Amino acid sequence: MATFKEALQGLANATANLSSLQVFTYTGDVNSVLTKDGGGIDWDQLFTKSKANDGALKLVAATKVLFDGDTYNFQTSEKLDRLDALLEIHEKSVNNSRLARQSLIQFFMDGLKNAVK
Amino acid sequence: MNAPIWDAVLDEIRREIHRRGTQPLHLQAPARPDEILVDPYRRLQGLLERLTRAERQLELAPLPAGDTSWGEEVRPGNKEHNLRKSAVRARLELLGYAPGAEGDSSTLRQAVRQFQQDAQIDVDGWVGRQTWEALDEFITLEPPLQLERWYPSGGSPCPALVRATALRLRMLGFEATPTDREELLAEPLAAFRRAARELGLPAGAEVPERQVVALLFDDELLLSIAARGLEGQTVLGPQDLETPEADATSRMLRRMVRNELWLQGYEVGDLRVSTQVAPGQKGLADGLRVYWSHRALPPGETIERRSKLIDVTLFAALQQDQGALTGDDAKAHEHVSSFVASHLEEFRQAWEHTIPCRPVFFIWDGVKRGARWLQKQIAGLSSLAEVVSKGVEYAKAFVWNMVRYVFQQGSKIFSTVRRAVAALIHGVQPFLDGSIRVGQGLGRVECQIALNGSLGVFIGSQASPSAADTLAARLEQMSQCLSASSLIFAEILRAELKLLKGPIGWMALLSHLVKDAPRWQSYLAQVAELPDHPDPTATLQFQTEAALEPPPQRNWLRRLVILAAGVLVVSGTGLVAWQVGALSRPTSSAEWLQLVGVILGLPILGGLAAWVVRKWLRSRLGL
User: Fold this and answer.
1) Among B392, B401, B362, CA closest to B289
2) Contact B334, B60 (CB under 8 A)
3) Phi, psi of B239 (to 5 degrees)
4) Which residue in chain B has the smallest CA separation from A103?
5) What is the pTM of this model?
6) If you count Cβ atoms within 10 Å of the first and of the last residue's Cβ in chain A, which end, N or C, has fewer?
7) Model confidence over B68-97: pLDDT tens digits?
8) Mind listing the pLDDT tens digit for each residue in B520-552?
């Protein structure tokens, strides 16, 4: 349970810094974005590589939700294969991410607020 | 309140504890969580620890959280409570399984597996909700039984139902040994048919066996039809409990009454022995004495006489009790919980004395009957003093039912909390892992999850729609688990804090939670309905597909280039051979060296040239 506790602590800390929520959805050749050891995706380089426009990686959509509820969206203008499906999963990801975020706030913030009433 | 009588009630329970060799509970006041007001994380940790302590102290027996697919993953966090284990062991023994002695978990697990196999439910040796509810159906005398599930029309009963049928027959006084073989019950079932027919019940030879089994398991129907049948009955006269059980029919009647009183919480002695009055032993007559002590007696009757008589008047009264259902369940629940809350100290005493005394009983049977009986009694009573003034035995029955009612509600609430813990862990896990990955290779779909909830989603160029759906489903599951669990924990924190501000303990918390039991029921339903993992076969199928190399596509341009390169090499070699031939045969060492160099070197140069061309074409044409 130690790791679970650590995760909770991390979440508790993260809720203090909830200025915005961002969701990026990419598609393309996985080989072009793997880490050097080939084990996982190099998420840090993903955004840069997708802008390189070498054809291997595309940014499908990006959403930024600000704390006050304002939302900024980007959607690719390229005619990608299965674009509708990709946008659908992006939308689902945004919704689920928002719900998860709201739940954490509800627990760590609202719970505390009610507790000290 | 009339303290001496209340003390007598507790003494009576204490004596029973002594007889059973159990120890009374000593509930301790919970630590006040003042320090956790500041930090929600520490507050949550403290809450879980305190709830675990409360659960242990109150001897509650919630179901383990591992009764859903997502709960399975956090099984190490689950535990099966000793109290519930005792109940499971007792139930399995009654059905004729061999669950082993107290503390022998491996034999118990084996017996649970056997039961699950016999009941044709998931076999994992784990008493989750499905297994618990199946045991409930087979053991409890209260309907409903899902007959179609255990005994399909046109089919045969599952082995577990056969065992339960044997038990039910024994409870009604028929000779039926524990067995899972249907044919071994033919004789006792035939005896039941005869007795039932004599009472006017529809159980003749023309009635299919499945229907007879249904009747056997419907205790309420059995009682009401028997009551109606007895009204016009001349063969079966009143029966005196001073006399032995004469035949199968009178034995069945007596045992039906005893079962009914037992379900209502009265002391009726050992359910396995004869109902005839035995000096110095608790029995059906004692239960009837208490029963008639708080009911209006028929004119000219005395409690003493009625306590030894099984007749149409008694059946009519029992049937009337069954019909006296309270209209508004929510209101009845409020009455009971308010009554408990206004007598907290007495309730604590009763709990401490009662729970260790009859642990199995509390999570066993008569839940609905006991609750109905209690609600009816409380409607006519204003205080506990009034309860105890009706006599020690009546007060004992009242206490049994009150504690049992709260126990049932409390266990459900703690089940909710356990599931909420499992859901929280499951919801937090992806944050802990940092990512969710589905599939591999070009079909890989992956999602990176930051602690603040931000996501990066990558969908491989050849990812199948099912892989993307799997990822979306997991994200949905994560968010819903977090949503449900955070709602529940916030609610508990509020309730706990409000209560712990005063000098009250777990009893107050329990009674407060019980007061809100309907809401907790809805939470329980909400957590239970959380989506499980996506269909594992779909995932497996996808992973299998991804693990295989995708079928090669026919790229004609690439083939053309390779062919051209091959032609180039062969032509070059031919040209060299022609040139060498033109030079005539070598005669000196230098000419021989030149020949070997040309033969070996030119094809290498040709291959190198072809490789360069191919690379160049690949980069330009995207081959």
Assistant:
1) B392
2) no
3) -115, 135
4) B483
5) 0.75
6) C
7) 555 554 444 455 677 788 888 988 999 999
8) 888 878 877 776 654 433 333 323 233 222 333
Structure tokens given for A57: 């990686």
Q: How far apart are CA A57 and CA A63, in angstroms?
A: 18
Dump the DSSP string for A52-114.
S-SSSEEEEEEEEEETTS-EEEEE--S--TTHHHHHHHHHHHHHHHHHHHHHHHIIIIIHHHH
Return the closest-CA partner of residue B254 out of B366, B184, B269.
B269
Is the complex ipTM higher than 0.95?
Answer: no
Beta bridge partners of A27: A58, B459
The one-letter code for the residue type at A74 is F
pLDDT (tens digit per residue) in B221-247: 888 888 877 776 655 678 889 999 888
Contacts with B, A 40-79, CB within 8 Å: 40-41, 43, 46, 55, 60
Q: Residue range B575-591: average pLDDT?
A: 65
Q: Specify the pLDDT at position B220.
A: 81
Let me know: does B124 contact B150? Beta carbons within 8 Å: no
> The tokens 């809450």 sit on which residue?
B47
Taking alpha carbons only, the member of B51, B65, B107, B57 closest to residue B83 is: B57
Residues from chain B contacting residue A96 (CB–CB below 8 Å): 472, 475-476, 478-479
Give backbone dihedrals phi and psi of B79, rounded to 5 degrees, phi first: -155, 145
Locate the domains of chain A by residue range.
4-116
- Cβ atoms within 10 Å, residue B317: 17
Is pLDDT at B206 greater than 80 in this prediction?
yes
